[in-house]
Please model this.
Amino acid sequence: MESLRRLASALRNLQHKQQIESDLDMEIRSYVQALTDEKIASGISPAEGRRQALVETGGLEQVKQAVRDGQGSTAIQSVMQDVRYGLRQLWHNPAFSCTAVITLGLGIGATTAIFSAVYALLIRPLPYPGSDRLMEISEVNPKQNEYGGPMVSPDFVAAQSSLRNFESIAGSEAMGDMNLTGSGDPIRVRVAGITANFLSQLHVTPEVGRGFLSSEDRKGGPAVVLLSHGLWRSKFGEDPKVVGRSITLEGQSRTVVGVLPAGFIFPDSEVEPDLYVPTGFDSDTTITQNTQVHMVRVIGKLSTRAHLEEAQTELKLFAANRAKGYPVFLASFMEQRVFVAEPLHRFITGNNRKPLLILLACVGAVLLIACANVTNLQLARSVARQHEMALRGALGAGRLRLVRQSLIESLMLAAISAVLGIGTATLLTWLIRRGGMPGGSSSSLGFAEILQVPFGKLSAAVEMNGGVLAFTAGLVLMTTVLIGILPAISGSRWDLRAALQGGTRRISAGRGDRRVRKILLTTEIGLAVVLLTGAGLLIRSFVNVLHNDSGFDPRQCLTAELQRNYTEAPEKTVGFVGRLLQRLQGLPGVQTAAISSSLPLQSIAPNTAVLPGDGPIPPIGQWPVSYGISITPDYLRSAGIHLLSGRGFSESDDADSAPVVIVSKLFAEHNYNGSALGKQIRTNINSRGADQFTRRTIVGVVQDVRYNGAEANMEPVIYLPLKQVRQTSLTILLRSNIAPGSLSSAVRRAVIETDSDQPVFNLQTMEGRISQLVAQRRLIMLLIASFALLALLLAGVGVYGVFMYWVSQRRQEMGIRLALGSTRGGLLRLILIQAARLILVGGSLGLAAAWFLDRMLASALVGVRVHDPVSLTLAWALMTLFALAGTGLPALHASRTDIVSVLHSE
Amino acid sequence: MERNQANLLQGTLDLLILKAFGDDEFHGLGIARRVEQITQGTFKVRPGSLFPALHRMEEAGWLTSFWGESENNRRAKYYRRTKKGERQLGIETEQWATISRAIASALKAN
Model:
């Protein structure tokens, strides 16, 4: 109540400021008058009485100020005064203000933009209620790979009924892309299997219809399907009566039971299915030689009472128990296997975590450098403004008031910069969102293209929101303190008398200030060297990735993907391939055309069991698997893969002729010390059964080609004639002598003309594929490189500013030195040596820091190692040169000091 | 006395001023003289602390003010104690009694 009343009175006082001021003035005057009257009454002359009265009263202004200070309104009033004064100061020094605002604005903007990505991808909770208890349960088997993978379905079914620390356990199975036909044009849809409890565990209710019943989620259950909102809109025109209709998926008819709500996001960083079907796992949890297993991604919801550690222990026990029930041939393989639960959020953002945090650290370093620069500017200015400060002090401003005034000026500066920064950040996040949106790729903005999708589908959620703005506000406060506190203290420290008396002479900064400035400068240089080293490492890695010889020629290639029904008879697939190939080869501009099961650089899985030509067949599970790629004869020529020895395939290598195989150089080296030609191997695609091995003769050896992305190691690969080994995932690879992109519509038409039910997808040039593969790496490299460049520039400007100031402060000294016989070259040397010392210290600090910090990037490096001497040296040399250039101008300036004018000015 | 006055506790000044008012009304110099009188000249209240105190107490609602004519027919701002000010005087008197008892006993202790 009391404080409210005080506030009201303060506001009232603000309103009637004029009235109150004149009243106060009148009151004090009448006091002096009354005192004078008293003196006169006691017999003193009027003039002497007035004089004594004034002396006893003390300064009228001081009394008034004391009254104002005691009033509630004064605090607000004086802050507003300071704000106005600060704005005036900034307005009257446009050079300083613009430099500071642009420097800080860029720093704050970049930091805010990166933080908004960090916030959307790493901090904001997942859009499922109670998501903090959702855990991804994955199988970790050191004998297979170090990362967690999916569970096999019998283990999953067993886990559902036996784990006590989880309230519920749901699973999903990636089913890849399937062809949806029978309702308009055939399209390709992404399909996932989900268990009946999957949606309810995420607290998602279908918008139309219902989710799967547990009675539907069983082996041989009814053929039902759930639609995503997107598919419902695009394919069924949001028809509410879609429930009950039947659609055809991979030739099988299924009944629609429901539609998912618009905002639903599938809990996976990359996949967003269009259609959902029940998983329908077998309830039998035993594993035998003949068990057909599915790979299940498992999400468990921790029960409210359970802790993650207890759950982990239970999972370990569970894994051990399960392994006991495995057949003998799997038991040894499963020895070290464990199940691990980790928060779903962390799992989904796993790959993006580190690069984003590194980016945030780098951009933070840029902001620090910007702050150091502005601090230096402020310090220099505070020396120039010393006279003003002293005057204000003499007029009754307390030291705290001066500090506050200076801090408010810094706050103004930071706040204006933040407006610029938020503008920049909004633009950047808009570009990121645009890139993340489906269809955004057609944008003609080159910049948006760079920001495209590298962080997966969650990047669509990158935006400026309350959380991000709060962070920016925090940045503004931090910036204010960083740039304001030192100048504020140093500006308020003046000995009034000395400052006022020495007003005509220039006074240089105190020792303490000079030291602060040197420390700031070396820090800036050091930080810039660290960033430059990081940028150097990433640029070298990027160049290495681009120049990685992947064993084929990506120029002039157009690619596309097709999927045939799994259930289709092999002869039908082969027939389709033959007819399509004929059409493709007939297209104008096409040199060679090929169809294969995989493209170079495409993700592939070891799908073919390969045994030597003779000897017993080991038990299933111990078959060595390799990458088997089915190709048509022109694949090698279309991709530009060199045949090293032997022959390629021809049209006559078909189902009726002798089984043949071409192997990669690595495969030949691993298994036959290079001389593989004519040797025999037994292959078994998709590891079907022990009786499904085919004996093949190696007829050719080809150069190694990179698969699984642009950065993976080369793997041993075998190539099989597509006519002998049919696969249902197909790709088209054309080499053309015209711009390959221009063939797209012709290729699409050729496919439809061959089979009107066959959708084509991912039609793009090989070079387009490569640029997508390196998109994230390129974005991070570009960002860090631009941050490093900014840091270099800022540090250079900082060096220039400090030494320019230093020289201007020491003009007298230079004049005297010249008068005493120093040469101009000597002056130049004097300054350069001073500067070089600072730059060397900064550079060495930076090198040391970079040496320690560059291991953060270790996982992102390709073809270079941490502590790469080239990057370190270049970073150091670049910064040193730049900083020396920054001192060059001031040094020249100093060496041109005009003795006469210096001596005159004394 | 100068030093002591500088150190005069703010609360003490309020107490003295509230006490000095009684049921009368005073302008600035009048109340200063009144305080001087009732403390037998020990406390000389300087305008630098007097006016801030008066304004603060007015803002707190312990005093009200009005413009009136002084003895010499000059305009002056007069203050008068309010009911609330009277209550405050009671509170502060009690506090002061507690403090002075405590200090007295502290000084007597060996």
